[in-house]
Each structure stands twice: as structure tokens, then as C-alpha cells.
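[worker-b] picked up task from shared queue
[worker-b] task type: protein-ligand structure
[worker-b] ligand name resolved to glutathione; SMILES cross-checked against name lookup, match
[worker-b] sequence length check passed
[worker-b] input payload:
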Amino acid sequence: MSAPDLILHNYWRSSASWRVSIALHHKGLSFRYAPVHLVRGGGEQFGEAFRSINPLAQVPALEIHEHGKTHVLTQSLAIMEWLDERFPTPSLLPAEPFARATVRQYAELVNAGIQPLQNLSVLAEVERLGGDRVAWAAGFIARGLDSLETLAARTAGTFLVGDAVTMADACLVPQLNAARRNKLEVDRWPTLRRVEAACEELPAFAQAHSDAQPDAQP
Ligand SMILES: N[C@@H](CCC(=O)N[C@@H](CS)C(=O)NCC(=O)O)C(=O)O
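[worker-b] inference finished, payload out:
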């Protein structure tokens, strides 16, 4: 089966896009990178061109060109699930059902329980209402990662769930980066830090790192 032509619409600092980038690199897939600047000029995500790709005006979006057809997937977890079904090796989910559900539980903890509360539009609204955006984001990130630390201490091997990289690890690494950007001291999460260090040894994680993206700014 020939590989589809893949285009990842991304912003270098987007933690949700970073997850998909880890998954693509982990599976050794080549893809084109289409930068979407989330800040410049009020945000390219709100322009007509990008809204025709994702009406929700968020990255990531993965364009898939195959057999003369184009599909667009958004939502990083749905994209990673599709990648795992379409390109099963190496898998990003364990085989055992309870372990699979645990990986999805951790991915959702980050995806639904933390990241939406630190999203750019939400922080802009917090500021508009007179709040402190860093204090707001840091509070929710700390609460979520404290809980992930407790859970992961029971399931982690080299990685968050056992000894193979999963979608949960692809969610963890960008989230810890966001924690640092929001002035949190990450050593309070020793299990998460240990797993992050193991991930950082892997080429896929180095290639997907925000600072290594073509649109990264110093
Ligand atoms: N649940 C979505 C979250 C997507 C999301 O929030 N993306 C952020 C960047 S990490 C975004 O595009 N924000 C633009 C904005 O807030 O205007 C996913 O996992 O793909």
C-alpha cells in the first residue's frame, strides 16, 4: 500500500500539534509542514483559508491526500488514533485492553482536563476579564499534572504505561513544556520527569520538539 501525502498544519508552540508530530515521527512517516501563525496579525487560524481546513480555527489539522481524494482530520487524539490504525507499527497503544484504556485516560486527562484551559483564546479571554493569565494556566496545569503524577506512579515503566511509547507520552512531553512556560517547577512530578527524560532520548521526540520546527522563533 503506498503512503498517502500528508500535510500537518501546525504552529511550533502548539502542544496539541506537537503530539501529532511525535506520532508521525515515531512511525517514520514523512509529511509536509504547513505553519499557521497563531499570534501574528490576530492569528492566521481565524483567516478564511485556514477556517476552510478547520472551522474551529485550531491546529493541528492533518490533510491526507490519497487515491485522488483529500481528507482532513482535526483533534490530535483522533489523528493519532487514525495514524495508529492506518500505520500500526510501531503502535502507540498497548495490546492489552486495560492498558489501552489507561493510555487513553491519560491522553484525555491532558487533552480535556488541562490543555483547553491554557489555550490561547481562553487566556486572552481571562486577560480581557481582568485575570492573570499565567496564574490561571499554572493553576490548572498543576492540578492536572499532580493527578497524572499520582496515576502514573502506579503504571509507569520506562514510559507512562509500561515500557513502550504510547499516545499518553506524546501528550505528556508538550504538556510539561507548557508547564515550564507557565513558571511551574516540574521536579515536583518525579515520575513524569523520569518518563520525559526517557522520551527525550528518542529521535522522534527530538524531531518533534517545538524548538526544532521550521517556524520556531528564538
Ligand atoms: N483538542 C484539540 C485542541 C486544539 C487546540 O486547542 N489547539 C490550539 C493550539 S495548542 C489552537 O489552535 N489555539 C488557537 C486559539 O486558541 O486561537 C486537539 O487536541 O487538537
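[worker-b] attaching auto-annotations
[worker-b] The chain has a mean pLDDT of 97.
[worker-b] releasing lock
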